[in-house]
């Protein structure tokens, strides 16, 4: 398994400085959201070929792979102008990902927390957006990876399998697995059974895993924790990784740099 991190958890830096920083901590991989990670890039429209060339060279020089080019867009929004911008931006980033040597372009499918009724309304818009972006991924021969989240239209295992079946292209449409974004009821969920079912069905689509941990406070506010100190039981996930995908990218999100080594060791133990 390759240990990585969401790069902008270390702050916004010059390209070369960030690559050196991540290498010095001991990471082998990084998820890059360029406007959040790099000084001088404030939007996806700011990205130039010079930026992409510098990123590729700096990260190759420091031995850090780029499994995910982050471009999280509001794909299911009923507002056509919002969706048009989302699809256009993702298509642009598919081309950028090829230039930096990223494995996939990663996105969730919405921005806001949606009600059950809203998720049903947003779902067909989301599906249409995904199909449009995958057409471009096919043309460029690169990959889009979608990340399910229980408060988004791509909310559960049934939704993921429906989208994968309707698109019908497991080469160009992949998935990012984030357990924290799928555990709505940690106190009552049999996590061994839950994660085993998820991974049995979606494992062939998974390109990378986000690794984080959390608890809900008395008001159900999400509170990040160090790995192994929160609600997530990684036992079934670790078992599946060893048996099926020992080459998986494990990308720490919500990293606190002050405890980076403890979290890196936790991921190595997975």
From TrEMBL:
GO molecular function: isomerase activity
Domain of life: Bacteria
Keywords: Isomerase
Classification via InterPro entries: IolE/XylAMocC-like, Xyl_isomerase-like_TIM-brl
Xylose isomerase-like TIM barrel domain: residues covered: 22-269
Protein name per Swiss-Prot or TrEMBL: Sugar phosphate isomerase/epimerase
Organism: Faecalicatena faecalis
Lineage: Bacteria, Bacillati, Bacillota, Clostridia, Lachnospirales
């Amino acid at each position: 398994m390759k240990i990585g991190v969401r790069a902008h958890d270390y702050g916004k830096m010059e390209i070369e400085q960030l690559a050196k920083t991540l290498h010095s901590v001991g990471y082998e991989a990084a998820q890059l959201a360029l406007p959040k990670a790099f000084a001088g890039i404030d939007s996806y429209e700011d990205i130039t070929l010079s930026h992409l060339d510098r990123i590729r060279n700096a990260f190759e020089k420091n031995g850090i792979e780029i499994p995910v080019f982050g471009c999280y867009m509001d794909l299911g929004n009923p507002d056509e102008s919002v969706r048009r911008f989302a699809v256009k931006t993702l298509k642009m980033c598919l081309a950028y990902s090829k230039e930096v040597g990223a494995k996939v372009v990663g996105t969730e499918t919405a921005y806001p927390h949606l009600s059950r009724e809203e998720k049903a309304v947003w779902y067909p818009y989301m599906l249409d957006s995904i199909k449009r972006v995958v057409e471009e991924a096919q043309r460029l021969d690169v990959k889009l990876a979608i990340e399910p989240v229980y408060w988004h239209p791509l909310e559960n295992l049934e939704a993921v399998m429906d989208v994968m079946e309707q698109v019908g292209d497991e080469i160009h449409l992949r998935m990012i697995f984030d357990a924290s974004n799928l555990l709505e009821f940690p106190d009552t969920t049999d996590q061994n059974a839950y994660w085993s079912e998820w991974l049995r069905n979606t494992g062939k689509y998974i390109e990378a895993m986000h690794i984080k941990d959390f608890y809900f406070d008395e008001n159900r506010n999400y509170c990040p924790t160090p790995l192994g100190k929160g609600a997530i039981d990684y036992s079934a996930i670790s078992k599946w990784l060893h048996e099926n995908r020992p080459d998986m990218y494990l990308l720490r999100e919500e990293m606190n740099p002050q405890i980076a080594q403890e979290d890196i060791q936790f991921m190595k133990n997975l």
